[in-house]
């Protein structure tokens, strides 16, 4: 195959790789995704709160569920300054902070999270101190932890936490994103490194599937799920104002 022909096919190959991963997660993680959604529904029905956390690019799927049209208004982002996103300068500082022992405890001690709440922790590798300690400390506080991670990393890498454990070892429920180690789906002669990561596509889909399940589970119990509408459709702002007022004690991104 000529090089120009191969490069013309790369977009399609990436779509195929992402679709294959999504199908694998759907087929092999479906029961656990359902369980995660129902756990969130249980928490909402009991008056609890829901938070999501991720560091670096793993923060993107967490942020994608917060203040989102078509999403649950009670999804909150647990933000750690310098870690969520790549807006910190230098961007490498965020990676360094993920490896700092003790940071997770300080974050949880100053957060609104309480016993009976749910915390979704997203970490592709699950090997750094921050997500591992976040899960350990949260569970010690009586918070239910859902981990979204690639379990394959536990077999191919070593933990950076003193315990030697990974995120997957300290969760009430683990959702395996099935992302291959290295998070790059494509290779090509003449390019020394693999490229085209798919973790954001897959993990964001997992998160939205969990939220959708939670909404459906609430409706099955006769509870109107606190869903947000787009602010760009007529009536959207009024709808959202009503929902946010009703659930004001469980929404923290407005404070």
TrEMBL record:
Classification via InterPro entries: RpiR-like_SIS (IPR035472), SIS_dom (IPR001347), SIS_dom_sf (IPR046348), SIS_GmhA/DiaA_subfam (IPR050099), UPF0309 (IPR022951)
PROSITE patterns: SIS
Domain SIS, chain residue ranges per copy: 40-228
Gene3D superfamilies: Glucose-6-phosphate isomerase like protein, domain 1
One family name in Pfam for this protein: SIS_2
Family per similarity comment: Belongs to the UPF0309 family.
Protein name from the UniProt record: UPF0309 protein OG727_15055
């Amino acid at each position: 195959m000529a090089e120009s022909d191969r490069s013309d096919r790369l977009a399609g190959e990436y779509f195929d790789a992402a679709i294959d991963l999504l199908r694998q997660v759907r087929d092999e993680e479906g029961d656990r995704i359902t369980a995660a959604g129902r756990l969130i529904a249980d928490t909402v029905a009991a008056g609890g709160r829901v938070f999501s956390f991720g560091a670096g690019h793993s923060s993107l799927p967490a942020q994608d569920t917060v203040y989102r049209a078509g999403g649950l208004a009670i999804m909150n982002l647990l933000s750690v300054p310098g870690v969520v996103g790549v807006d910190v300068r230098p961007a490498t500082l965020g990676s360094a902070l993920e490896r700092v022992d003790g940071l997770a405890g300080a974050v949880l001690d100053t957060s609104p999270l309480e016993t009976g709440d749910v915390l979704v922790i997203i970490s592709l590798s699950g090997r750094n101190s921050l997500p591992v300690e976040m899960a350990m400390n949260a569970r010690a506080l009586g918070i239910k932890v859902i981990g979204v991670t690639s379990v394959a990393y536990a077999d191919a890498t070593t933990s950076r936490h003193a315990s030697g454990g990974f995120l997957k070892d300290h969760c009430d429920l683990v959702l395996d994103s099935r992302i291959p180690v290295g998070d790059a789906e494509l290779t090509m002669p003449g390019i020394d490194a693999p490229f085209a990561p798919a973790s954001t596509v897959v993990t964001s889909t997992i998160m939205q599937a969990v939220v959708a399940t939670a909404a459906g589970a609430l409706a099955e119990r006769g509870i109107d799920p606190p869903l947000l509408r787009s602010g760009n459709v007529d009536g959207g702002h009024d709808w959202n104002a009503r929902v946010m007022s009703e659930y004001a004690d469980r929404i923290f991104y407005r404070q």
